[in-house]
Structure formats: C-alpha cells, structure tokens
Amino acid sequence: MASVWFAVVILLSIQQVFAIHRECGEFKNLKNCNDCIRCGGHWCNDPNEVKRCSRDRSDSWCKGKTETLFTATRVEEKGTLLSPKYILQTLEVGSRTSLNFTFPSKTSEQKVTYIVNSTQNSDFQVTKQTYCNGETCTTTIEAAPETTFCAADGKTYEYFNVKVSVGGIEESSEIKFHVPCACGCSEAVEAMSRTCNRRGSYSCGVCTCEEGWVGTFCEEPICEKKRGDVPCIDSGRNYPECSGNGVCGRCDQCECFPDREGSRYFDKDNYCADICMTINDCEQCLESHLPGPCQDCNFPLFNRPLNQTLLTYKDDFNRKLWVKCNTTINDCNIEYAAMRESNGETFYMIMNSCDPVTGEQVVGGVSLTLPVVLGVIAIAAVAAATAGYVVWKNRTPPMPLTDPMYQNIDAEDCTGENPLYKPPTSSFKNPTYGKW
Ligand SMILES: *[C@@H]1O[C@H](CO)[C@@H](O)[C@H](O)[C@H]1NC(C)=O
Ligand SMILES: *[C@@H]1O[C@H](CO)[C@@H](O)[C@H](O)[C@H]1NC(C)=O
Ligand SMILES: *[C@@H]1O[C@H](CO)[C@@H](O)[C@H](O)[C@H]1NC(C)=O
Ligand SMILES: *[C@@H]1O[C@H](CO)[C@@H](O)[C@H](O)[C@H]1NC(C)=O
C-alpha cells in the first residue's frame, strides 16, 4: 500500500497547466497540446507537421515526435472475499476499460453497488454487469471518461474513483483511474525561443508569438502599413533604402540604428533620414550664415552662433544633443552642429566654413537671442541676398576648376565668394546690436 500512495503523491505534485477553451470539435483544428489531450487526441510536437492533433496514430504521422503521456504503473491488489480490492490504472479520455471483480456466490445478498467521485467533472460513464456461475459471481465494471471530463484548467493528471460494494460483504473495492488532462510538455516553456525567431515562446512544438508577429515560427509580421514605394526587404542592403542609418525591417519599414551619433534624430518615417541630411537640403540657409530663422527651408530652421559648451550636452540616454554635420556647397566645405527640439524647430551652429567672413563671425560669438527687430531685418536681408545669389550661382565659373593652377585650392581660400552676398553687419547698422 505504501508504494501505491507514493506513486499518487508524485502524480499529484505535477504542476498545474492552464488551457484556454474546452470545445473539442475536429481534431485537426486543435492547435494546442492541452486541448488535444483533453479531447482524447494524440499530439504531435513537430512544428513542421500540418496535422498537430490526431485521434489515431498512423505510422506515417509525426514519427517519433508525438507527446508521450506518462502512464501510471498499474497496481492491483487482491482481496479476500471481494477481489481485487484496489486497482490503480491510467485511462485516457475517450477510451474505455472493463474490470472484473469476483466474490463468492453464497453470500445472502448479491446486490452490487458503486459510488463514484472525481477531481474533475463527473463526465464519465460507469456501467456494471454481474454474472454468477457456480460458486463465483463476476461483476464487470466498465468505465470511460468522456471528452468533457477534463476541465479547462485541468492538471496534467486528474483522477476518478469508483468504490464497489457487495451487499453482505464487509470489504469494498476501490478503483483509481488516472486520467491525463493536459500535456507535460506545456510546462517546459522556452521564452523568446530561437525556434520562434526570438519573437515568441515555445512549448509542445508551438510558437506563441509576441504581438505583431504570426506564423508557425513567428516569421510573419502583422503589417498595418507597408512601405511599398521602395522594396525594403533585403536586410543586407541598407543603403539607400534606409539612408545608411538603418536596415530594412518588418513590413518593409526601415528600422533605424539606435546607437549611432545622431540616432536621436533619425526619422523612422522618412527612411531614417538624419538631421544633417535634412539640413543639407536647405543649402541657401547654410550658405547665408544669417543668424536667426531662415526662411529658405521647408521646416523651421534657425542659425545660432557657435557655443562649444552646447556641444557637450547630452540627453537622458547619454546621446549628444548636438550632432556634427558637414556638407559641400560649390566646393565649399561647411561644418556645423545641429539639433532639433521636440516641436520640430531645428537649430544649427556653423563650426567651420570656407567663407572667411563667417569665420570671423564664428570666432566672435554673436549674442544668442536676437532682438525681434533684427530678426525681421535679417529675413529681409536673406530675401535680398537670395535673389542676388540665384543670379550669381548661375554664372559661368570665372576659372575652370580643371585648370592645374587652381587644383589645390584649400577650402579656407575658397575663391567662390558671392559678390552680392554681404553679411548683415555690413548692410545694416542696428544701434541696439552694437557688438557687430
Ligand atoms: C470479465 O468477465 C467476463 C464475464 O465473466 C468475461 O467474459 C471477460 O472475459 C472478463 N474479462 C477479463 C478482462 O477478465
Ligand atoms: C473519493 O473516493 C475515494 C475512494 O473511494 C476516497 O478515498 C476519497 O476520499 C473520495 N474523495 C472525496 C472528495 O469524496
Ligand atoms: C553657451 O550656452 C550655455 C547654455 O545655454 C550658456 O550658459 C553659456 O553662457 C553660453 N556660452 C557662450 C559663450 O555664449
Ligand atoms: C564630410 O567630411 C568627410 C571628411 O571629413 C567627407 O568624406 C564627406 O564627403 C563630407 N561630407 C559632405 C556631405 O561634404
């Protein structure tokens, strides 16, 4: 008896397993091991097998990868008058078994009764039949747990007990049926599994994908919108699809690098364009060097005097607020630092330029906040300068760049100075702005 209870203790200690629903329907539609077992099927742990749950086990189906349910070692103990007096055996949902009990026919009463109890629903059939032959009677108890026996939160093993009594005999018999109600494999869950492309957890050969992914191996993204215009499908090809600042990711969208200089400003919705690319498009602003807002740009862009201290500022993620950029306009190298506020206002500070006039301005360090009046004047100056610039820009170059005499032109000695462009200091004298 001690060994029997020992076995029972082990079985009861098996961890609880939860399942989602309990409607069985067709076996081939059962997509999780617990449901399959509860419904009396066999489960296939091979993710490549199409039919995961099957009533029958054919030889060709799921070779060597079916989930094996632990079968309790059968125990049977003889009784003296009513025998056997104890039986422990496994009985799967959907199957049935018959057990014979014998007792002497000479007992005055031969009325056989049984009572049943269970750790689950009382959805099982038990029938009895008694035949007497000579000095011995045999009662056959037939038992079959139905597909509704296991509750949705059934444990790996559940039980139902049948206690058999015969009128006139003191001793009674007990049958303990041990019914698998869930899968052992569902207890071994591999989180962020490699099998599921690290996008889901894996157990019983099934990937449970995290949000945004579907597919047997969580390989298929759920896409709200596809990028569509440029194919962004080859993760090895990151340029020009993602501006060199990211790679093609799911849903044909660019996934920008999070850890580069300027990552803070990579525009996910615009092919990971960085702040330098965006500002470089506003050539006229970069060339003009006018402090304050620049009107020749399709977004709010402001020039401010160089302040080295600002270049050291970092955000909460230890990323530089100001990003160094450069560009070449008409053979003139311009180096500047840029940053963008959360409201979209973008600022730049010229660090180096081939324009000697600007060079002076940069070193001089202009007061940070410009008077509004000056801002307006500056805008006018930009407009005037721009008109002239267009004429100037379309001129024929005074000296061909291929001329060997002019090949080693240093950026600092850039000769392409716009004759019409004059920094505002020389055109406007603002009495409130004496520093200029
Ligand atoms: C149980 O008893 C019945 C009737 O006596 C007999 O036909 C059957 O073979 C027995 N079954 C087993 C498993 O002994
Ligand atoms: C169920 O039946 C078994 C065997 O007859 C008995 O040991 C157990 O105490 C019963 N459990 C309940 C809850 O009645
Ligand atoms: C640079 O900016 C910081 C912070 O705005 C300011 O405290 C400092 O005075 C500025 N330095 C110069 C030289 O303007
Ligand atoms: C920026 O400078 C680097 C070298 O310092 C140069 O290779 C690159 O072409 C420059 N970029 C632009 C846009 O001028």
From TrEMBL:
Membrane topology (UniProt): Single-pass type I membrane protein
Signal peptide positions on this chain: 1-19
Keywords: Disulfide bond, EGF-like domain, Glycoprotein, Integrin, Membrane, Repeat, Signal, Transmembrane, Transmembrane helix
Highest taxon of the lineage: Eukaryota
TM annotation in the entry: 368-392
InterPro entries to which the protein is assigned, alphabetical: EGF_integrin_1 (IPR040622), Integrin_bsu (IPR015812)
Principal localisation: membrane
Keyword Amino-acid biosynthesis recorded: no
A single BP term in Gene Ontology: integrin-mediated signaling pathway
Subcellular location: Membrane
Region of interest (Disordered), residue spans: 417-436
Residue ranges occupied by any Integrin beta epidermal growth factor-like domain in the UniProt entry: 185-213
Protein family membership: Belongs to the integrin beta chain family.
Name of this chain's protein: Integrin beta pat-3
